[in-house]
Structures are given as structure tokens and as C-alpha cells.
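Sample 1 of the test manifest.
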Amino acid sequence: MKDDQQRGLLSKDAFVERLTREGSTRYHDHHPFHKLMHSGNLTKIQLQQWVLNRYYYQTRIPIKDALIVSKSEDPNFRRTWLRRIQDQDGQHEGHGGLASWLELARGLGLDVEEVRSFRSVLPGVRLACDGYVQFVRDSSLLEAVASSLTELFAPTLMAQRLEAWTHHYPWVSSDALEYFQMRIARASLDSKQAVEFVVQHALTYQLQERCVQALIRKTEILWHLLDCLYMAYVEPGSGGKKTE
Amino acid sequence: MKDDQQRGLLSKDAFVERLTREGSTRYHDHHPFHKLMHSGNLTKIQLQQWVLNRYYYQTRIPIKDALIVSKSEDPNFRRTWLRRIQDQDGQHEGHGGLASWLELARGLGLDVEEVRSFRSVLPGVRLACDGYVQFVRDSSLLEAVASSLTELFAPTLMAQRLEAWTHHYPWVSSDALEYFQMRIARASLDSKQAVEFVVQHALTYQLQERCVQALIRKTEILWHLLDCLYMAYVEPGSGGKKTE
């Protein structure tokens, strides 16, 4: 810590490079469950369970984004960030990201009411997602924004996913994949704004370090979500060992 | 409390009537400072100080509304409530309620940067406004929404204010009064939605009672804001005795 106190501010490029490196090496695309998904090796039930469990994560997004809005004193920031809530909730009933995710669930043959009920969400998935909301609630605005930076890696992943699913799971109609398609452009815009914000506001090395730690914490949350799916539906009883 | 446990749910009409009665008798239009304002008996400095101090309250509105949005699991509710944040922050820089309030400050001859800085906000005003945000943060969604129901009385007050200010303080240009004008229609719509929500969700007498208490708590916050102004700028040293 003493060393940290004495360290000077990283340059913008070095800071963004550090965030990108620490985030990308821990991003959930490296998770065994995710690798099985993109290589076409998940069964229909495994894929369904990912969609069902991940829906709980999706529903936490507007909640954590509203918490982020509540932490800002700046109308310009709030106006910009509000769009994320609108992206998920839509401008009208049945529109927006959450509705698209339910279309995905329908496209995979899931009972949409079952998905919406959260009844079958794995306990660990629920804990991870609730933990993310709590982390955002307890964090500074800067750390909360930094934790959103997993979106830096989302556009590439969404593009790969569209290709992988179209190739490996052709029984899922392309209409059902609208969410992934939509996220390519949005995540790119969102992460650009979030990077600008953290670069502008992390004005000491210590604050830069807190941003990095917040992003790492977020990658752990996404990673753990897949741990739970792996343990429950790929190798029950593995205790996550295969995911190390 | 035991009596309360045994009491049956009030009918919708009786509940709304109770909210209206408990709220209206405690609403800040009865406060001596407010009576001085609407009867044309505030000096320019006293009026300026009201606008300056009340701006701090105004800036808390989008923050508490974002907290309310974060408490909801319902995209429809969030979509509707989000409009309140947009009403204050505007769709573009320089638009919206907060910008209109700064126009009001400018119209009263205040230094807008001084107002924005919060430097001259009275400590008690700051405590009251921060207390409101904290109350919303700690409350259930139902209580937080109920606390917004002072808006039931806002349209009438805004209409009276426009008339009173135009008559008594003609040196304030009518352009500067846009905020009050805008609130007549918006507060009417907002309170209608909030009443519908509490009626729909307060499904036991105990929950109805919590709604009433939340509204009373909110009236106390608005009242105390005027106590502080009265003590500082009307009768220094009165310790609020005149306001009882």
C-alpha cells in the first residue's frame, strides 16, 4: 500500500491498457462453460439453463444502472446513463433488452413465465447477481462505472456468439438472437462513455487502482455465474474445480 | 399497534381521503414563511434566499427518483418513473426543471454559479434535503412512492404562486416563472400515477398506515426547509417558535 501511495498517475493510455488487460484476461469468454457454448458443445438443456439463469443477471442491469444514476450530481451524466435503463426496459411495453432476452428464452423453447418467475435460478447465480447490485450500491460512482467496463469486451463476444450460435445451434431462430445483435453497437457506445468517465475522474494512482479492482470484481461475478452453471449442468459435483 | 394489526383495509376512497387530509393539513403552504411569500411580504433578499436554498432540494429530486427506480422490479413502473428524472434533467443540456430553476434564480438577480455551488445553502436545509434522500434510500418502494404524494397539492400551489408572484413581485420576469408553470401539469400527472401505485400496493391497513407516515415525514422535510429560512432570514433567533 505504501508503494501505491507513492506511485504516480498512469497516463491515460497506460491506465486504459491496464484496465483492458486485467479485464480481458479474466473475462468470462475464457470460462469452460462459455467455451463449450461457443464450440457448439452445450446440450439444449445446458443452453436453456444458461439463458434462464442469465436472465436474472439481465434483470439486475436496470436496477444497478438506476443506482449509478442516483450517485451522480451531474444532469449530463445522468441523462447519458439513463439511456442504459431505457435500453433494457424499452420505450414501450414488450420492447427493450429484457423483452429481447425473453424472446431468446422463447426461441430456445423455454416457458417464458417460468423464466420470469426466477423460480429455477441457481442459488449461486442469484448470490452473484445480487452481489453485483450490492457492490454498485456500496461503491463510489467512479468504482460503479468502472465495474461496467466488462462491456469493453462485449461487442467482440456478441459478434462471435451470433456466429457460433447460428452455426452450432441452428434450431434457435435468428429472430431470437436480436439481443446479441443489439448489444454489439450499444456495448461499444456504452463502454466508450464509461472509459471516458473513468479516465476523467480517476485522478490519482489510488483511484485508478480502485477502478481496476472494481472491474476485476465484476469479472469475478460474471465468472462465478458460469461456475454455478458448470457445477449444476455440466459436471455436477465438480465444485468448480474444472473451471480453474 | 395491536389495534392496528386488527384493523381492516381502508377502502380506496377512504385511504386516498386520509392521505389527502394528513398531507394537506401539514403541507408547507401553511408555513409562515410561505404565507409571507404568497402575500407579497417577502423582501427581495428573502425571496432570493428561498430560491437559492430550495435549489438544493430541487437537485435532490432526480437522485431520489433514481433510487425509487432502483427499487422496482417492474420495467413498466421504471419506464414511467424515469420520466421524472428526465423532467428535471431535461432531454438536452440547459433544458429541464433544474435548468428552469436556475433561470428563476437568474430572474431574481442571483449569481447562478453561487446557486449551483450550494455554498450558501443553510445547514438545516441541507440536512432536511439529505434526510429526504436517505429516507427514500432506506424505505420500501411503496413508502418511497407514498412520500412523493406531496405532489397532490403542488398543482394548486403552483397556480397560486404564479398569480401571487406576478402580482406581488412584478420585477421577476414571467419567463423566470416557467418552472412553476411546467409543474402544474406535470405534478398533476405524477401524483395521479403515484396515487394509483400506492392504492394498488398498500394491501393491508398496516401498509396503508406506512404510506400515510411516509407522506407525513415528507411534509415535515418540506416544512423544516421553511423553518430554516424563517429562522435565518425573517426572524433570526426565533428558533422556529413562530412557525409552530
